[in-house]
Amino acid sequence: DGLNLAAKAAKKLYLGTATNADQWNDTVYYSILKDNAEFGQITAANVMKWFDTEPEPGVFTFEDGDVIADFVKKTGKKLRGHNCVWHNQLPDWVVNGTFTPSELAFVVERHCYELVHHYQGQVYEAHFLTGSVHTEALNDDGTFRSDIFYDTLNSTYIPIALRAARRADPHAKLYINDYNIEGTGAKSTALKNLIKSLKREGVPIDGVGIQCHLTVGEIPTTLQQNMEEFAALGVEVAITELDMRFLNQTANAEGLAQQRADYETVIKACNAVEKCVGVTLWDFTDKYSWIPTTPPDEGYPCPWDENLKKKPAYDGIIQGF
Ligand code: XIL
């Protein structure tokens, strides 16, 4: 029994989780994380991001990321890369830098190339690296997000990043990863248009990562349809950062039953879409979730509780597959 086993029985590639290595001295946490019956895939929650991998221009530091990659190799899980270009968790020299367009194009290209190249070769068979090449390129209304990349390079930084990543590792699946694209709507439509235009221009793009930082009781009803619409464009999809916070409900027995049902709904949607390849939890326990828990109403977003005991949500996932 286990989440990853359930996913595989349903012909998905994996059920995985994000993690931070500083949690690994928690022996109960670590033993669940290690268990391939529960998790077949790992995403570094932080340490493959720009601030950690290129803290100074042209100075690449992969030691922290390698700790995750080595664990993945040792346990025989799959690795998802995360991420090449994002407006958050950037080093100061990028956020506060002044660049001409050609200078920043060089900087983006070098970063994506070096990052993906470093983890190249962990791709074949046992290991499956997908660079989530750009996260969160769009605003909720579907316009491009104003950040250092867009403001300097317009949307050209996206093909620059994708092409550099493809060159760095031709076998890595390249994803654009975003939030608030769970249901249909302006932002999803804009991303579909972006995927179409990338494909038209011959820019490599293999998948869409749907983050799924969701709220209990508020699961978009168009989730499955939306995934199908992405898949119809010739890309695969993955649920890349699933968690489900309490916001307008209380985490009492009734709330936990709702959370269980909502996890099941999300998993079922992925299960029904052939091109939905897998699901990643954005960590598996309330103890280490990035969503703060303020009793009684907020947080508690994961399938294991703060004492590392399984919650009803765990059974919801099993049921969903
Ligand atoms: C989060 C990490 O989990 C936190 O530890 C960190 O402080 C902030 O970033 N979308 C993403 C992830 O793509 O990289 C974010 O991870 C959560 C939102």
Automatic annotation (TrEMBL):
The active site is at 241 (nucleophile). Residues 1-320 form the GH10 domain. GO terms for biological process: xylan catabolic process. Keywords: Carbohydrate metabolism, Glycosidase, Hydrolase, Polysaccharide degradation, Secreted, Signal, Xylan degradation. Its EC number is 3.2.1.8. InterPro entries: GH, GH10, GH10_AS, GH10_dom. SMART domains: Glyco_10. SUPFAM superfamilies: (Trans)glycosidases. It is an enzyme of class 3 (hydrolase). GO terms for molecular function: endo-1,4-beta-xylanase activity. The keyword Metal-binding does not apply. Pathway: Glycan degradation; xylan degradation. Gene3D superfamilies: Glycosidases. GO terms for cellular component: extracellular region. It is found in: Secreted. It catalyses: Endohydrolysis of (1->4)-beta-D-xylosidic linkages in xylans. Belongs to the glycosyl hydrolase 10 (cellulase F) family. This is Beta-xylanase.
